[in-house]
Structure formats: C-alpha cells, structure tokens
Design brief:
Chain lengths: 313, 529
C-alpha cells in the first residue's frame, strides 16, 4: 500500500504541473487585461500600456510562465495584481470559511442523508420510500440560491433567529461561528442530502438482496443490526465515492452559497479573481484545487480498503 | 504553501480552543458603523486608478490641501493660509498646525510637494497644472510655494479637485513611488486610519477613528470643512448579492447601504427603520461613446443622427428604474453645476425626430456596415444603455449587434484600435459621476486629441482650441461663455451622446444621523445612536 500511496503522490505532482501549465495558457489566451481594470475607467491607452509594462504583462508567455514556476518552486505563489497582497495570505484568509462551510455541510448531509437512505431502502415501495425519494428529487431540482433566500426570509427576517450574512471565525466563539453557518450549510447541504440519500438507498437495496442478508435474517438477527452492522458497511463504497466527490466539489463549488451569504471563501476569491483577471490568484487557487482533488481522491480510494477488505493496493 | 498548511492546523487548534473559551466581544463597547460599500475595495492607491471605490477609500485615510464645498467653491482644507502674488505667478501655501500622518510623523511641505507631483503625472487637470508650473519649493516644513511659468487660473480647482483622481496628500516616502506602480501603504493624515491587517479583499475593510486628526472648525460641506468622526470604527462590507445586502440592512446587520439597485428601493422603503434617500446632488451621467477610427461613426453625421433619436427619459428609466431617480440632462456638463446649459442642445431636445436622423444617416453615405456594440452584462448601467441603443440603431436601419461580455472584457476590448471585424468595436456605453463632468478640464470624454484621447480617439482641433480658451478665461462670466462655446462645438462634433442624469439612492437605518449631502458618501459627521 505504501508504494501505491507514494506512486499516487508522485502522480499528483505531474497532474498539478500539467494543470498549472494549461491554466496559465488559458489565462494567457483569455480576453481581458488586468492593467486596463487596474487603471480605471478614465485611463488612456498610454496609461494602460505603462501599467502593463510595470506588471510585466507585456512579456512573452514562456518568460512569464517560467518566472511564475520559478517563484512557485521557492514556495511563492505570487502577489495579487490589485491588492498587492501575497496570494498565500489571500488563500489563508479564505480557507477557514470554506473548510468550515464544507465540513458542516457534509456533517449535516451525512447525518441526515444516510439514515434517510437506509430508511428508504428498508421500507422500499412504501410511502416512506416514496416521500424520501420525492424529497430527493426536490432537493436536486431547487437551485441552492432559492433555498438560501427562503431560509433567509424565514429564519433571519421573519423569525430573527439567525444572521442574514457574513462569517465569524472560530476564534470569535463557537456559537457565533455556528450561527453564521447554519443557514448556508443547510442551503448547500440540501443537494448533498438528496444525492447521498439516493445513492445510499440504491446501494443498500443492492446489498439487501444478497444471500448473506437472507441468512442473517434466517438466523433471527434484528433489523437494526442487519441494516447497520451488515448491509451498510458493504454498501459504503459507492457512498464514499459520492462523499469524496462532494468534498472536492464543495471546496471549489460553494460559490453561489458564499455569494448569497457573503461568506469570504475560496469560491468567491476565485470568481472575483477571474472577473478582474487577477492571474496570480487564479493560478494559485487552481493549483490548490487540483492538489486537493487529487488528495481527496486518494483518501477515498484508500478508504475502500476499510469498507471492503477484498480491495488491496 | 507551508504557511497554508500552518493555517489549516491553526484553524483546527482554534476550533478546539474557541469551543472552550468563547470570545468576550472586545468591540462591544465601541460604536461601529457597518457600511455596505458600492464595490469591493481592491486597489489602495487613489492615484494609480480612477476607481470610485478607491477614491472613497482615499477620503477616509487621506486629506487634501483644498476641497470643494456644496456651492462649488474651493476651500482650504489642510492649508491654513494661502497667498498669491500680484502677477499671479507665485502661490504660497501654509499648512495648518498639528497635522500628522497615521504613523505619527508631522505633515511637511515635502510631503505635499511629492504628493502633488505624483498626482500630476496621472491626472488630466494635474498635467495641465504641471504644464504651467515652473517649480514647487519648500520654504520651511509648513510653508511651500508654487511658481508658475504663466498664470493658471485653475490652481485651486486643481488642488481641490473632488473626484478621481483626487490630489490626496501622502507621506513623501510613499508619494515618491512611480505613479504607474500601485502603492499598498495606506498611511495618510485623514480622519480615519485603515487597519490593513483586518482587510479581507472581497469582504471587509476596517477603519478606526484617527485620534490625532485635527478637524477644521467650519461645518462639513462636501469634502470641505470639519471632518469630525463620531464613531470609533467603520467596517466597509462588500456584499456582492444585492438581495442579501437588502436583507442585511432590513435586519439591522448593516447600518448603511451606499447605492441601492432600483428594484430593491420599494423593499427597503417599506421598513420604517430604514431611510431611503437621494443624498447625491449631482448624480451620474450616462453616455454613448463612439469609435472615431472606423466607419460608420467616423462620420459626424452618423453621430449627429443619434442626437435626434436618443430619448434620455428612456435611458434614465432603463438605468435607474424610476423616473424619480433621474432626469434628462441636455448638457455636456453635469446638470446642476455652474457650467451646465442647453446651448447647442436642440437636436437632443423635444420630440424625437427619426425622419431627420434617417436623413442624416443617408447623407453620411452609410453603406450597411455592421455596427458592434460592446456590452458588459455584469454592469446593469452599461447593459441597459446597450439594449436601448441597439433598438434605436435598428429603427434607423443600421445593422447593429451587441457583443456581450463582462466589464473586464469590455474595458480591455475598448482599447483595441482594430476594426470591429478584427476584435475592435463601434460603440460602448459607460457613465461618470457628476463631479467628473463639471467642466472642460475634468470632462475627459470631451477631449479631441486623437491617439492621446480617451477610448474612441476623436480628433477635433477646434474642440481643443475652445477647451484651451476656457482654461484662460479670467472670471466666472468668461468661463461660462467659454464653456458654452465648448458645448456648442461638442453638439456639432458629438464626441459622445449624453444619455441623462441618474441617481442611485442610498439607504440607512433610522438610528444613523449626520449623513452629508454630497456627490460621494463621506463617513465623518455620521453618528450612530
């Protein structure tokens, strides 16, 4: 297994290098000029030209890429063209809100979705099953921002229980942190609840039809032990795959939620950087995402060994 | 990358710590003003960019030698005494006593000279002042002189310029920075001090009251007068989603929202704890800008044709959503300011005349060229104007199309001088705040200097001669007459079509008082009960 992990980590470096090059190339080819945005509406063409020279944006592609790569090898992701702040600092500022949102969303999703999926499978064909599946379809179909606005309207405006927007760091107190994340996590979690509940149900139904489950029932084991102790562990591999994909998507994909709830996370940092062509930030974040995706995939693959002892690397 | 890993570890440790020891709320006793700003502050240097959000940041942390009041008069601000020699060639300035930068250093003549020098390399009016300047020199730490090569009647107007670029005073060590390089040290001598460590771009900017600031005794009037800070801390919030911003203000999570989108005005007006108000006496001016390098708008008659069909009421409605939030402004200078007039504006007045416009298009010899309007769909003011202009052009029989993108793409593409079929353009729309169009000195889209002019690159020596004559006008009456001549020529040459004057109202909680009526949101004098 150790050799496998090392091999996968080695592959990660190759993947990240390729991603870095492709992203650099795409940004180079994309229309848009940070110098023009930096200069403002009233700037003349000459002003923009001078700013571009100062920023080194007039240099050839390979020179710019080599410079960026060289700095990266020295642990420097560069400096934002607009704020003049180091990209690492900007990512550091945003990583906590994104991790908080991701973890809480997944916690809510897993706590709600897995029991729902098990229940739907155990009661397959009944109204409970149909209700869970109907919720699942609704959860998939309603856009996150609609759920978000509805939650704000009810819990923030009408009931005044929870804040409308913003983020409080963990260091400002657990309750404040949690209060600011309940609505965004619930809004974002709805999709994942729907997805995981559906996968859990399908996977459980598959397992529940196996001979060894019938044997367990014939032995007189209670339903709870059969569902959780025997069936769920064997149904876990597809569920873990979906959870892994979910984590990866959440790290970079919570943009809508972060925007609606004004959470300063990585997703919004990325979108803002793309809109103003802040190349160093885009490159830094994409590198981070690609690394995170590869590592999460590795962790998911390794988790299969726990759930299914037949899998060995 | 190492520090990134460290921050993840810190977060995990903080999670455990915070759960055990929750925060006691150190700011609980402070008066904190939470202000939803019009945009995200990304650039700290008000000289290297003309972005209005950076200008507003400048007013928080910097001060100016002179400032404009609500009667358009230039008043001393950092300056205590000001003298001008009889030949109008030597101007002497003496700073007020007790002016200090945020780092504790006194404001010196050298700081002022370096700041004005840097500003004059980027700002159009500053460049005009620099052309007339023989030298700046410090008499002592508090007194300095400006020696001119020739009399320049607009010295004070330049030094008290209210909008981008504002000649803010910075410490000499910062002001020596190349004007094309972005500064990142917000040390100024203004009424607020920025806490840079708490700055989260895209989310929050934090300012605290500058305890060392010595306000003038006069009451505040626009950017002039006493800048008395009545809160301890100001948090500029950037909330990208306007529905969320409205909900935050409604729920009392924010105290003031600088600029409301028109569709949310009724939502906030229903809340008795929220005051919705127009505090900007000058508003903003929309415009249709042409590319003068390529057909068909390199022909004067084609540009004139649009004057006959543009209905400013439609544009104001499209931009501001409600006729109450704007008005037609048949002038190249901001309506409500001394130089505004309707001189030469007949084609833009009254019943719209499509027949006359079609005749002009015919006389121009329009050959069916495709007209490309570049649009930014993420900027509602730009997008609304683009759609209206497209309809007008179609009604005139002009083959027009919108090529949409985001604002970043538009402002890059408008710098392209190639023909539209090779990535160029024919028309774009934008807007400027009122103070940026009050006279020929600051109204940069009026310039006719060809390659050196603003995007579109119009060439018109007559317009430039008339502008030069305005600079040399001796008194207010002569200035008005010269400005009228500029405008008359502008309505013939049509460097752009003004599309009306609009105001985006502001909204604040009813426990806020002291909001200054001015073309930009100033946060001094504001009290929170």
């Amino acid at each position: 297994m150790f050799a496998y992990v090392i091999r996968r980590l080695g592959a990660t470096l190759v993947v990240m290098t390729v991603v870095a090059f492709v992203v650099f190339l795409l940004l180079y080819l994309t229309p848009g000029d940070p110098a023009a945005i930096l200069a403002g509406d009233a700037a003349t063409g000459d002003d923009i030209k001078r700013i571009r020279e100062k920023l080194g944006l007039d240099e050839p592609f390979l020179v710019r890429f080599a410079g960026w790569l060289w700095a990266l090898l020295h642990g420097d992701l560069g400096t934002s063209i607009f704020t003049n702040l180091p990209v690492t600092r900007l990512i550091e500022q945003r990583i906590e809100p994104t991790l908080s949102l991701t973890l809480l969303t997944l916690t809510i999703a897993l706590v709600v979705a897995i029991p729902l999926g098990i229940l739907a499978a155990a009661k397959a064909g009944t109204w409970i099953d149909r209700a869970v599946m109907a919720f699942s379809v609704v959860g998939f179909s309603v856009p996150v921002f609609v759920i978000a606005y509805a939650l704000i309207l009810v819990f923030s405006i009408e009931l005044d229980w929870l804040p409308v927007q913003g983020y409080r760091s963990f260091s400002e107190g657990f309750w404040e942190w949690l209060r600011h994340l309940i609505l965004p996590s619930t809004a974002l979690g709805t999709v994942y609840i729907a997805l995981i509940a559906r996968i859990t149900r399908a996977s459980m139904l598959d397992v529940l039809a196996q001979d060894y489950i019938r044997t367990a029932q014939a032995k007189g084991l209670d339903t709870g032990s059969i569902l959780v102790g025997h069936a769920l562990k064997n149904a876990a591999v597809p569920i873990m795959t979906i959870v892994g994909i979910g984590i990866a998507l959440l790290i970079g994909g919570a943009i809508v939620t972060e925007t609606v709830f004004a959470i300063p996370g990585i997703g919004r940092l990325t979108v803002d950087a793309i809109l103003r062509r802040d190349y160093p930030i885009i490159q830094g974040v994409v590198l981070l995402f690609s690394g995170a995706y590869v590592l999460i995939n590795l962790a998911v693959d390794l988790s299969y060994m726990f759930f299914d002892p037949r899998i060995r690397y | 990358m190492v520090s990134l890993m460290r921050s993840i570890a810190t977060f995990a440790a903080a999670a455990v710590f915070a759960a055990v020891f929750p925060s006691t709320g150190a700011n609980a006793q402070q008066k904190v003003l939470k202000f939803i700003a019009q945009a995200d502050l990304r650039i700290l240097d008000p000289i290297s960019t003309t972005a209005y959000i950076t200008r507003n940041h400048g007013y928080m942390v910097y001060d100016t030698l002179f400032a404009m009041d609500e009667k358009f008069q230039i008043r001393p601000q950092m300056v205590d005494k000001y003298e001008v020699s009889k030949d109008q060639l030597t101007h002497t300035f003496t700073l007020r006593d007790g002016l200090k930068f945020h780092d504790g250093a006194p404001v010196r003549s050298a700081d002022c000279i370096a700041s004005v020098d840097r500003w004059s390399k980027r700002d159009a009016l500053g460049q005009k002042l620099a052309e007339a300047t023989a030298s700046w020199s410090a008499v002592n730490d508090r007194t300095f002189t400006l020696k001119l090569k020739k009399p320049f009647p607009l010295v004070l107007d330049a030094l008290g310029k209210p909008s981008s670029n504002v000649p803010f005073i910075m410490p000499e060590r910062i002001a020596k920075t190349d004007p094309f390089k972005n500064i990142d040290d917000p040390t100024g001598s203004g009424p607020f001090r920025m806490l840079k460590a708490e700055w989260v771009p895209g989310n929050k900017v934090v300012y605290v009251k500058n305890a060392d600031y010595v306000p003038r005794k006069e009451p505040p009037s626009w950017a002039s007068g006493g800048k008395v800070v009545k809160v301890d801390r100001v948090e500029w919030l950037y909330i990208p989603d306007s529905a969320t911003a409205a909900a935050a203000l409604n729920a009392g999570e924010a105290d003031w929202w600088e600029q409301l989108p028109p569709d949310l005005i009724p939502v906030l007006a229903r809340n008795k704890s929220v005051i919705v108000k127009n505090i900007d006496p000058l508003g903003s001016m929309g415009m249709i800008r042409f590319n003068f390098l390529h057909p068909p708008f390199n022909n004067e008659k084609m540009r004139q044709a649009l004057l006959y069909v543009v209905n400013q009421r439609d544009y104001v409605l499209g931009i501001a959503g409600d006729p109450k939030n704007g008005q037609p402004c048949l002038s190249y200078f901001t309506c409500g300011t001394p130089l505004a007039s309707e001189t030469g504006a007949d084609p833009l007045k009254g019943q719209r005349n499509f027949d006359r416009a079609r005749q002009l298009v015919k006389e121009a010899g329009y050959k069916g060229e495709r007209v490309v309007i570049i649009d930014a769909t993420d900027q509602p003011i730009v997008h609304a104007q683009s759609l209206l202009t497209l309809e007008l052009l179609k009604k005139l029989g002009i083959k027009a199309e919108i090529q949409a993108g985001d604002w970043g793409t538009l402002i890059t593409r408008r710098a392209v001088k190639e023909p539209p079929e090779k990535g160029g353009w024919n028309i774009f729309h934008t807007w400027l705040v009122g103070p940026d169009m009050v006279n020929p000195a600051v109204n940069f889209p009026l310039r006719g200097t060809g390659e050196k002019a603003w995007f579109g690159w119009p060439t018109d020596s007559k317009l430039e001669e008339l502008r030069e004559a305005w600079f040399n006008a001796g008194d207010a009456a002569a200035s008005k007459k010269a400005a009228d001549a500029v405008q008359r020529r502008a309505f013939e040459f049509v460097p752009f079509v003004p599309t009306g004057q609009f105001i985006l109202p502001t909204a604040y909680r009813s426990n806020i008082s002291g909001v200054i009526i001015a073309p930009m949101a100033f946060l001094w004098n504001v009290e929170k009960k």
